[in-house]
Amino acid sequence: MTRMSDLDENMVAEILCRVPMTCLKTVRSVCKTWNTLSKKGVIVAKEKQFLGFMMMNSRVCSLRYDLQGVRNEDNVVEPPSIKQISTLDQIEVSKIYHCDGLVLCVIKDDLTRVLVWNPYLGQTRWIQFQPKHDFHRLDRYALGYDKNSRNHKILRFVDDDYLHDVKHILRYEIYDFSLDSWRVLDVTSDWDIAFYQRGVSVKGNTYFFATEKLIFDEEEVGPQDIDTSGTEDFLLCFDFTAERFGPRLPLPFHSYFEETLTLSCVKEEQLSILYQRYEPYEMDIWVSTNIDPNAVSWSMFLKLDMTPLTGFRFDFMAASFFIDEENKVAVVFDLDRFRPDLTCRYQTAYIIGQDGYFNSVNIGEAPNLANGKVGYTWPMFCIPLVCSSSYVPSLVQIA
Known about the structure:
This protein is mainly beta and about 400 residues long. It has helices spanning about 10-15, 25-30, 30-45; strands at about 50-55, 60-65, 80-85, 95-100, 100-105, 115-120, 125-130, 140-145, 150-160, 170-175, 180-185, 190, 200, 205-210, 235-240, 245, 260-265, 270-275, 280-290, 295-305, 320-325, 330-335, 345-355, 360-365, 385-390. The strands form 6 sheets. Strands 12, 13, 14, 15 and 16 form a 5-stranded antiparallel sheet that branches. A hairpin with a 2-residue loop joins strand 1 and strand 2. This is F-box protein At1g10895-like.
C-alpha cells in the first residue's frame, strides 16, 4: 500500500499548492518529507497567486488572489478568496501588521496586550503591556527584527496629546522577543506621524509617512488656523537593529492634508506608495528601486486620472493596496462610492492598471460600526485592510 511519504515530490508540491496556509501546521505533521516541502509548497503557490492576510469586519482573514488574465478582453474579474482564520475566531482586531512571516494583531477593546501569530508554525504569543503605562486606542505599532541576531521586536509609540495631556510628548517603547520585556526608548523628534498612518515593514525595518512638527502658541492661534500648505512631507525609517529613527527620506511628490497617502510592500524587499490628490483625483503609485534606513530612490509604477473612472477619492485614513508587477495592476481595498442616501455600503476591491484599465469587485457588505452607538451621528462603515500580499513562511519560534 502506498504511503503518504512515498508520493512523488512533484505530486506533493502540487497538493501543497492547494492547501490553505492556515492548515500548514497539520500538513507539516504528516511526515518529514511533507514538513520539508510545505515551505516550498507555499512559495510555489505564490508564483500563481497573491497570498497574504487582511483585516475584514474586525477579523483576521487569509487572502488569495489570482490575477492571471485579469486584463483579458472579456473584462470579467473574479473576486479574491477571503477566509476568516479559524484559530483566531475568538478575537476582534482593530489593527494588523506583518513582517517576516509573522502577524501582529492589535486587539479591539483590549488595551492591555497584543497578539503575535506565526501562520506557518501555527503558534501564537500574547504580549502584555507594561503595567502603570498609559495606553490609548490611537497607539501606533511596528513589527521588525534585528538584522544581526534575527531577533524580532515590536515598536509601540503613544502620543500623549491624544490623552489630553498639557504637553505634546511622544513616548516610544520597544518589546524584545528574546528578553520578553519592554523598554522605553529615548527619542526626540521634530516631526509628527499621524495616528492613521500605518507603517510598513521592509527588510526588517518599518517605514512611516511623517510631517514637520507644527509649533504654535495656543493663546494666540489654534492648530486649525495654521497654514499647512508648505509643510514638508517625508518618509521615516525605524531601524530595529539600531533601535532608532533614521534621517528624513524624500518622497517623489508633495502631498497635502487629507490627500490619500498609503504604503505597501513588494515581496518584503521594496516599498510602494499610493498617492491620490485631493482634486482632481489623479493617482500615482511609486516603487522604491533602492531603499535602506538612510536612503531611498523611486520609480513610477502607475499614473492615472481616477475622475472619469470612479468620481471619488480613496479614503485617506483607511485605503490599503498591493501591486502586481507582472500584470502591471494595483488592487486597492476600500468602500464603494459614498452617497448621502445610502444606508448600506459594500467593501470593494478596485483593480487599476496602466492605459486607463479599471475594474472593481464587491467583496461583501460593510458593517456599520456606529449602529446606534452613543456619540455617532452618522454611519461609519468598516473598511477592509490588507497588511500583507507577499506571505513567505517563517520558522521563527514565538511560543
